Amino acid sequence: MADFANYPSLRGKTVFLTGGAVGIGAQTVRAFAAQGAKVGFVDLNADAGGALLKEIGGDHAFEQCDLRDIEATRFAFRNLAAKLGNAEVLVNNAAHDDRHDWRDVTPDYWDERMATNLRHMFFAIQNVAPAMIDAGGGAIVNIGSNSWWEAGGGFPAYATAKSAVHGLTRTMARDLGEHRIRVNTVVPGWIMTERQKELWVTPEALAKQVDRQCLPDPVDPVYVARMVLFLASDDAAMCTANNFMVEAGSI
After folding, report:
1. Which residues, 6+ apart, have CB-to-CB distance to 82 below 8 Å?
2. CB neighbours of 250 closer than 8 A, spacing ≥ 6?
3. pLDDT for 219
4. I need a surface site. Which of 135, 163, 185, 211 has the fewest CB within 10 A?
């Protein structure tokens, strides 16, 4: 593993993160905890969330939450704030890239995919932004995807939701920028999480992916986490309304 950077400005910061129990989210929770931040994360997976909280130890918190339920999300965020203080950093990570054939998509399924992959991001921002304004600033990082840039098929509702994340980032960066709140998108490529490995990574698919990348190595979740850390830190004080790619040059 590389000898990664330390960001003193993150020490003691309160970070809220959605979808933090597994995958990219869990790796990002670990990364913030290692920086000395106070991390509050939410996830539907109570067992994995509890295990991760036990693993990182220290002054952190976990709330089980179905982010499709906005009232439940608000309740979970209130509980995190009561335990850790108001969020100074928000990472909107939660998503689910289930495959689906466009012929089979119903209006209910479409709406559920928007609720899973997009809607909660806006309401999480709405929840934390007032306290960030009162504090004089903050950082918000939305996790997008390069799937729609690559014209990836097999999940039209997911790709549509993820493309909209970039619009959300741009408009909220404008609305919140006067308060010194920065809003950016981290754009992962095909990241080798355990879920991806279990469901979709085959030797043939991986070889095809690596061939289209400029760099010849599969992308580990830790590199997404490192980009999130940078954007949350004071080192990125003049970075907002932009996309930061972590995809080994595969666009």
Report:
1. none
2. 146, 150, 189, 190, 209, 212, 213, 214
3. 87
4. 211
Percentage of the chain beyond pLDDT 70 is 97
pLDDT digits (tens, 9 = 90+) for 147-186: 888 888 889 999 999 999 999 999 999 999 999 999 999 9
- Asked about 158 being catalytic, the answer comes back as yes
Q: Which of the residues 7, 109, 158, 223 is marked catalytic?
A: 158
Write out the two tokens for 159: 């790709």
Q: Which amino acid is at 177?
A: G
What domains can you pick out in the chain, each with its CATH number?
10-190+220-246 (3.40.50.720)
Mean of the per-residue pLDDT values of the chain: 94
What is the number of residues in the chain? 251
- In the chain, at which residue ranges do the beta strands (DSSP E only) sit? 14-18, 38-43, 61-64, 89-92, 138-143, 181-188, 243-246
Both structure tokens of 89: 């950093």
Q: What pLDDT band is residue 136 in, cutting at 50, 70 and 90?
A: very high
Q: Report d(CA 28, CA 106) in Å as an integer.
A: 34
Band (pLDDT 50/70/90 cuts) for residue 98 is: confident
Provide the whole-model pTM: 0.95
